[in-house]
Amino acid sequence: MTTLTLAKALNEGMRKAMEDDPKVLVMGEDVGKLGGVFRVTDGLQKDFGEERVIDTPLAESGIVGTAIGLALRGYRPVCEIQFDGFVFPAADQIITQLAKMPLRSLGALKLPVVVRIPCGGGIGAVEHHSESPEAYFTHTAGLRVVACSNPADAYAMIQQAIRCDDPVIFFEPKRRYWEKAEVDTAAAEEWFPLDRARVVRPGTDVTLLAYGPMVKTCLEAAAAAEEDGRSLEIVDLRSLNPLDTAAIAESVRRTGRCVVVHEAPVFGGFGAELAARITEECFYSLEAPVLRVGGPSTPYPPSRLEEHYLPDLDRVLDAVDRAFTF
Amino acid sequence: MTTLTLAKALNEGMRKAMEDDPKVLVMGEDVGKLGGVFRVTDGLQKDFGEERVIDTPLAESGIVGTAIGLALRGYRPVCEIQFDGFVFPAADQIITQLAKMPLRSLGALKLPVVVRIPCGGGIGAVEHHSESPEAYFTHTAGLRVVACSNPADAYAMIQQAIRCDDPVIFFEPKRRYWEKAEVDTAAAEEWFPLDRARVVRPGTDVTLLAYGPMVKTCLEAAAAAEEDGRSLEIVDLRSLNPLDTAAIAESVRRTGRCVVVHEAPVFGGFGAELAARITEECFYSLEAPVLRVGGPSTPYPPSRLEEHYLPDLDRVLDAVDRAFTF
Amino acid sequence: MTADASRGAQAPPELVQLLTPEGERVEHPDYDIDLTPEEIRALYRDLVLVRRVDLEAVALQRQGELGIWASLLGQEAAQIGSGRALTDADMAFPTYREHGVAWCRGVDPVNLLGLFRGVNHGGWDPAEHNFHLYTIVIGSQTLHAVGYAMGIQRDGAVGENGAATIVYFGDGATSQGDVNESFIWASVFNAPVVFFCQNNQWAISEPLEKQSRIPLYRRASGFGFPGVRVDGNDVFACLAVTRKALTDARSGQGPVLIEAFTYRMGAHTTSDDPTRYRVQDELEAWKLKDPIERVRAYLFKNQLADQAFFDEVDAEADELGRDVRKRCLEMPDPEPLAIFDHVYTEPHRLMDEERAAFASYLSGFETEEGGR
Amino acid sequence: MTADASRGAQAPPELVQLLTPEGERVEHPDYDIDLTPEEIRALYRDLVLVRRVDLEAVALQRQGELGIWASLLGQEAAQIGSGRALTDADMAFPTYREHGVAWCRGVDPVNLLGLFRGVNHGGWDPAEHNFHLYTIVIGSQTLHAVGYAMGIQRDGAVGENGAATIVYFGDGATSQGDVNESFIWASVFNAPVVFFCQNNQWAISEPLEKQSRIPLYRRASGFGFPGVRVDGNDVFACLAVTRKALTDARSGQGPVLIEAFTYRMGAHTTSDDPTRYRVQDELEAWKLKDPIERVRAYLFKNQLADQAFFDEVDAEADELGRDVRKRCLEMPDPEPLAIFDHVYTEPHRLMDEERAAFASYLSGFETEEGGR
Ligand SMILES: Cc1ncc(C[n+]2csc(CCOP(=O)(O)OP(=O)(O)O)c2C)c(N)n1
Ligand SMILES: Cc1ncc(C[n+]2csc(CCOP(=O)(O)OP(=O)(O)O)c2C)c(N)n1
Ligand SMILES: [Mg+2]
Ligand SMILES: [Mg+2]
To answer: According to its UniProt record, which cofactors does this protein need (chains A, B) (predicted)?
Structure first.
């Protein structure tokens, strides 16, 4: 057990993966000497060399496109997209190539490529640096989409993602990068499966579904609600595609109420899939419709407005209250 | 009143728009002499010249990016993306620039750009030529997203889209291009509003929500269901963003049951938003969960499998049946 | 001759040519090739056979057996010349039109038809032939090729007995961001990759002028690596130029851009109607430069082959055509549940759920005797 | 001096220079400029004032008044030289670092701060100044500029008294697909656009070698239009070269790429720590080429300005700095409901619904005295 920040846990996880498998490469803008703008790749180039930790030209399509080629040659590239808002130049390579090539080959090809995306707001940044583009990828068949919410998961999940033979879009909650927790760097074989949701706080009255940065927000809300005598169960989804529907439905059937929380705009966001699916699964158990808490259906605002844009404890509790008015 | 195919209705609509406003331009790959691979722009270059109907270099990001620049200079470009699956190279320009620039300018700039996308399957085509990428755009705040389902709407909606000062993603159901109907080319001022849903067949037992190519499929299903004594109401959404929630909710409250139909993969598809929103709006009226009929959550299959992939009359009726088992 | 028709009608001076349209061997200061009669006959055979496969595929499409077909007619020399320059260790990344290259890589022609028939999205194992799947999204394969070449570098497989990558794309593709990014990556990392652009003068209905105002081979100079224009209808020149580029790449000298100056003699695909946008004269001018005729003339004039040889090749071609046709018709449609196969490599819950639900839906029809 | 530090330490032969780092006027066969003393003093004043605004912004960021700032330190001559070459009718498309160009376009420096302070995404009306909004997604503005230039063509505004577009981007940006596509569009349509690349040697931590293995100005040759490299720290040369390029573009001679060879003297942004990736020696070498010092030296040596003038400019700069600071602190935060404004130009139901719901949510707090 060591205490690590989430950023450091990712760093250690990648380091471990690179030690375990010489085919693992890290590539992206500024991932080398600088160690990435968030220092998540800090020290890796120093230790593994420029051949394995590659500072690429400044073009995201090129990053993902060449990563695909490297994977075809037997490598396991881990690409860093510098910020969420800059993944879109790579959209074509991700959606039409990375996601579809294994199927196109009838299984002859596998593409173990990880695309790491620091995501979400709350860091006072300028435009394009605070977005939550997960819904673009959860709707893209052929991709796995995961989101870590804490250092221990970050450490394990990045290694699991790298070992996975499918392409994985890996979301990292950038405003939680500096939060610390105990990480058991030894228990490699006992990792919780990458595609499973986890109840991170048991409760009886309402199920809160969250992932990435919002898990902590929900935990805070649960602590506050407890004082009001309300027991919230928090499920950290971890994997968005595939979704652990069984685990979620089990919780919602017990509580009878469900609130979904994410930072992305509500309209067409991933919460819509959660709400639709849960309603279908748990129709007779639901005392209220699944309520969604998310960003307004607008572009991410200037940072002086982000406290109003981002779901916070109050917005979550407000939705919980509303779930009881039905 | 004249009888037009859907493709020709679009062609006439664009022609009218170009006559009405010299700032309207048409641009894209092969839109000139060839008239587009579906002939939707047939004859326009001949009549309006190469300055207004522009055969562009082969690059979708370039098409949308330069259209933005033309719009900044006061033009109203109508871009054609040759097939649905080729919109992704333009994803960055659409998502980070086209959708956001008006907000970025605090309203100083408007971007009246229309991006036409022939969409959907059922034409026996190869990969990338049969997709339904609407969910990527409905989740993108700043865009309007519309889908026409018949020649009369096609004629009016394309002109409304071109007149709209917001960017519009305009989906055209390619397998319905050759279907004919009466089009009233005169009634320009009495057009049904672009952002309104329309009940295209009234009914009492279940509400079917559809758009684009699936409207016809639903109408066929309704005819078949009638023989079985079941009355289906079909709502053609027409506008996906903004959504005409009030009209939809009014219908669902009446029928108490709702089935959503689209070709896109169900997981994370636009149907999820419909289901989530309707459930929230109509919770007490729903006798069954909103059921979704769509493509499997896989990439679009080889064409010999598309009849199994695409929702058809049977799949729609199966869902209707299921809605009655709750 | 109209302005249109003059496109490439006279060979530009920078064009590498070793065999004239009339079948005369010419010298080039930088490129030469020394082929045995047997090798030349083998090239001729390749050219004829791939043209025959292509013709058969067009016919199959006309008869409704294929959904669409992208013909290589006119581009045989570019494809056979470059394809025969490859060693087994080299890796090739095609577009959707490289039937001739596929032939050189040993891909069974019938396997090419699966995609166009609509029974799969790609019917061969790329690793088995070192020939990647067809790529339809214009230009995207160029980045894959460069990434693959970077993998070759990391494997230490550059140098003597090294390997290289070749990637095919069209004149239209040169406008895509991806293609230009691939030039950047290749030059910055000095990757062992040969960019093989078949400039067939048209991107569907758009002539080259819509993509570039200068010859395409010169694009490379803007990225700091060599570009060369070769007569794409001259199989000798294509072989020589590609061989040299590959040798250079394999030995660590980095990327090269080859522009094979050729012509799309047919429609863009069987869905296309070129009479809407190009003049017949242009086609006629190019017919005189047919890639097969000139080899035939050369073989004949130099008495390297007799009529019996030509007849034999034609007979083989016919047999191949018949065989391809027969096996095309035999290609089974995939099972409905195949929709869910291979979407993921590892088990995936959603696929399992949807597959099961669909199976049960389908079985409902069986009990209902075919459903409604 | 290390290998790193030698980057650009000696001027490459192809560099257009009219004023040496020591303040000596030199001749160039293709470019010349004839400036009155008054004009030169005005350029000096521009350089000093924009540097001062920049310094103030860095200080404001350090004090928590801005979230981040992208300093132009070292790039003043490139920006003022090119910016002063523009006429009112020309349109400029910046990145996020063109504070000097903004100055030339008459944008109030305080308006630049809104984006970095987080009160808006862009604080001016582009049409008012013919200066587009800052663009953060690397390279995307190049296509906008070309589209705009195509609009100029369609307006018939090319020719005498014509207009042109200039678009700014960095060395790193040259790797983006969009930038290369913009080169294609511009050349194919012969659009009146000047591509102004400020090669400041770094893209955050990546040196130019990660983007190109040849000088960037040569990229243009691959697309068939002229490229020129200018000493980006020489305001005379930047003015002369840009003026000529704009004149050519306006009169219908099509695009030009200008590579302004300069250096990012500061961090990439205030969030960056360049000591992690570059050596101090390099900085020292470039300090000797400071863009302001050489104009000062020239003015001084040629007795075109006296100490009083310099003091006056310094005083003006200090006053400007104070004013910018004061007005920055006064910038109000936007109202929460502004989140919903201007997302759409025309009425949009979802915006109205969400705005109303949020307003009612907020008013809940007011009645609850600030909520939980
Ligand atoms: C990204 C993308 N956009 C559009 C298309 C549609 N399309 C298919 S082939 C083609 C023209 C390609 O021209 P070129 O690169 O010259 O190759 P050729 O077909 O002539 O061999 C186009 C526009 C596509 N496949 N991919
Ligand atoms: C598409 C995209 N990818 C990544 C980034 C993050 N980023 C911001 S500035 C920058 C480096 C830009 O370098 P250059 O083009 O040389 O301009 P400079 O900052 O040196 O002026 C990067 C990678 C971005 N803004 N946009
Ligand atoms: Mg072509
Ligand atoms: Mg730079």
So the answer is: thiamine diphosphate
